[in-house]
Design brief:
Radius of gyration: 25 Å
Shape: globular
GO molecular function: endo-alpha-N-acetylgalactosaminidase activity; sucrose alpha-glucosidase activity
Helix content: 25-40%
Function: Invertase that cleaves sucrose into glucose and fructose.
Oligomer: single chain
InterPro entries: 6-hairpin_glycosidase_sf (IPR008928), 6hp_glycosidase-like_sf (IPR012341), Glyco_hydro_100 (IPR024746)
Strand content: 5-15%
Number of strands: 21
Structural class: alpha+beta
Bound molecules: alpha-D-glucopyranose
Strand order of the largest sheet: 3-2-13-12-11
Catalytic activity: Hydrolysis of terminal non-reducing beta-D-fructofuranoside residues in beta-D-fructofuranosides
Protein name: Alkaline/neutral invertase
């Protein structure tokens, strides 16, 4: 085992598993709030040591003279002992041997991470590095990559437009605190909304544009807190009825609740939702991927790489990766998921291998490749990441891409081919090509389809997946260019009165009935079914800056700037052209506000954008060509990679 987790299980009868911040206990070194320490509540009165699936149960009293002999450290933990000193020992013993398997941690004698959560006299919930290095975390001004200093940002704010100033005010008003520290932003802050459902929670995916706005604005504390607190929630015991979802899963959202514990003491608790309360019980597959993407962005934009180097952060990162890379029955390198496992978190016929998940998966793998500490223990995982990246980009570039030429090929496909050399590998019946597509596809341009399964191509255009393919270079440079050409050529359909449509076209009639299950929220051209989502602006801006199409982004942002403040920052717009505020749209939706701010800041400082996107990686292409070559299909060389893998 590479982890020692010491988790206090309180004697409370509460069955809630929540992270608690007490306002009555003494201060702790690791806690950012002086009067706050955190406790993990479960039902039994004993400690657990080990990874969540392999706990070693010890009587409560054993804490007081607990000798970790099995790890041969001779480390004695006493009730009055300052855990920071243990952290120091732990960190100095840090072994560069990260395991690729969560399961085998218990048997491993390496001591790589101490992970302490609450307890009587137990101070930090996660032991922080408290060495000199930690104290000298580079400030924003120190960033060698040219990050603007706080004072410059403040000056820039003076030059902000009216809409930007309002957006900043609203974004700050949406901040959620835990134990006196900012940890995220609520999904929506609509004072008129009497039934906020879960919109009063901090959603992982929704927080990303808020985090970027804060980082670009020179405020990094909230992002660091968010990353560390959500990391805590990752190792939660979670159950949906009698089933426990996989280790490493990140919640869709969390809420800070105030609860009365004993006597008059009020405690703050972090209450995560892993999908067990979510409408439709959808799996938040994208949460972990966004968490990884944000972790990298934090390092890039602040210059503080010590966060990603921490042992607990490295372990959390590996847990997400292990969950994503676990073998299953899949025949494809793309990630197999259930319906509604991403931004579209309702039934919309996107189960299987939806593009959005693949693009986020690809980005998260690229981020991890940069952030994982390379050592003996991580070499297998890094190899697995490289192989998956190559296979995934080949798969998407080759099989998801459509343009005039490709549609014409599909139109003439032969079917029922049984052989290794089949042209129509997925047995797509040409009759599947929808009539709308024949008229819609422009001469110039193309896009990546929404989903690919045996005998099934979902030809709908999904904006987030296509934009994120550009940003991460999942598409080839030519494909990325062509996607923006298509968006420009089809502006009346995708941008129109409010950029941008979440997908195009909408499902209607029988298709709507069968595919959405007659969902009244997802009627044609509303919400996820062809609604327009201003939050997508920031991803569009980023993609445009990357591809040198800044004017296109400016046009979209200007359009949004005119309407959003007047319309009170809605979550989404309805109708074919995005004319009306969405039927059930929340107002003062935070990711609308922060998406707008992030777009504006990226446009003002386009050089910052380069820290948030990726260029083509020829090394990965080469791995891919080599792999194909082994199967006797293609020549193996860098040149072949450039010319043959669709560059
Ligand atoms: C809706 C969206 C989802 C978002 C949530 C909170 O459910 O579909 O993507 O995270 O609202 O804003």
């Amino acid at each position: 085992m590479n982890t020692i987790a010491i988790i206090r299980n309180s004697a409370t009868k509460s069955s809630r598993r929540v992270l608690i911040g007490s306002s009555t206990t003494s201060s702790s070194l690791a806690s950012p709030h002086p009067k706050c320490h955190r406790t993990l509540l479960t039902t039994a009165n004993h400690f657990r040591i080990g990874s969540a699936k392999n706990f070693l149960y010890l009587p409560f009293s054993s804490l007081f003279h607990f000798r970790i002999n099995s790890w041969q450290l001779g480390l004695v933990i006493k009730p009055d002992e300052d855990f920071s000193s243990i952290a120091r020992v732990a960190y100095s013993l840090s072994v560069r041997n990260f395991s690729t398997s969560v399961e085998n941690r218990v048997n491993n004698t390496n001591f790589e991470r101490i992970y302490v959560q609450g307890g009587v006299n137990l101070k930090p919930h996660v032991v922080e590095r408290v060495d000199e290095e930690e104290k000298s975390v580079p400030t924003i001004e120190k960033n060698s990559e040219g990050f603007v200093s706080v004072s410059v940002v403040e000056k820039a704010r003076v030059e902000d437009s009216e809409a930007e100033r309002e957006a900043w005010r609203l974004l700050k008003g949406a901040v959620v605190s835990y134990c006196g520290n900012p940890v995220g932003t609520v999904a929506a802050n609509d004072p008129g909304d009497k039934t906020p459902l879960n919109y009063d929670q901090v959603f992982i995916r929704d927080f990303v544009p808020s985090a970027l706005a804060f980082l670009l604005g020179g405020e990094s504390e909230i992002v660091k807190n968010f990353l560390l607190h959500t990391l805590q929630l990752q190792s939660w015991e979670k159950t949906v009825d009698c089933y426990s979802p996989g280790q490493g899963l990140m919640p869709a959202s969390f809420k800070v609740r105030t609860v009365a514990l004993d006597g008059d003491n009020l405690e703050e608790v972090l209450d995560p939702d892993f999908g067990e309360s979510a409408i439709g019980r959808v799996a938040p597959v994208d949460s972990g991927l966004w968490w990884i993407i944000l972790l990298r962005a934090y390092g890039k934009l602040t210059g503080d790489y010590s966060l990603q180097e921490r042992v607990d952060v490295q372990t959390g990162l590996k847990m997400i990766l292990n969950l994503c890379l676990t073998d299953g029955f899949d025949m494809f390198p793309s990630l197999l998921v259930t319906d509604g496992s991403c931004m579209i978190d309702r039934r919309m016929g996107i189960h299987g291998h939806p593009l959005e998940i693949q693009a986020l998966f690809y980005s998260a793998l690229r981020c991890s490749r940069e952030m994982l500490a390379a050592n003996e223990g991580s070499s297998n995982l890094i190899r697995a990441i490289n192989n998956r990246l190559s296979a995934l980009s080949f798969h998407i570039r080759e099989y998801y891409w459509v343009d005039m030429k490709k549609i014409n090929e599909i139109y003439r496909y032969k079917t029922e081919e049984y052989s290794m050399d089949a042209t129509n590998k997925f047995n797509i019946y040409p009759e599947q090509i929808p009539l709308w597509l024949m008229d819609w596809i422009p001469e110039e341009g193309g896009y990546l389809i929404g989903n690919l399964q045996p005998a099934h191509m979902d030809f709908r255009f999904f904006t987030l997946g296509n934009l994120w393919s550009i940003v991460s270079s999942l598409g080839t440079p030519r494909q990325n260019e062509a996607i923006l050409n298509l968006i420009e050529a089809k502006w009346d359909d995708l941008g129109s009165h409010m950029p941008l449509k979440i997908c195009y076209p909408a499902l209607d009639n029988e298709e709507w009935r069968i595919i959405t299950g007659s969902d009244p929220k997802n009627t044609p051209w509303s919400y996820h079914n062809g609604g327009s989502w201003p939050t997508l602006l920031w991803q569009f801006t980023l993609a445009c800056i990357k591809m040198g199409r800044i004017e296109l982004a400016k046009k979209a942002v200007a359009l949004a700037e005119k309407r959003l403040p007047i319309d009170l920052w809605p979550e989404y717009y309805d109708t074919r052209t995005g004319k009306f505020i969405g039927k059930q749209s929340r107002l003062y939706q935070t990711w609308t506000i922060s998406g707008f701010l992030t777009s504006k800041m990226l446009l003002k400082k386009p050089e910052m954008a380069s820290m948030l996107f990726w260029e083509e990686d020829y090394e990965l292409l080469e791995i891919c060509v080599c792999a194909l070559n082994k199967s006797g299909r293609r020549k193996c060389s860098r040149g072949a990679a450039r010319s043959q893998i669709l560059v």
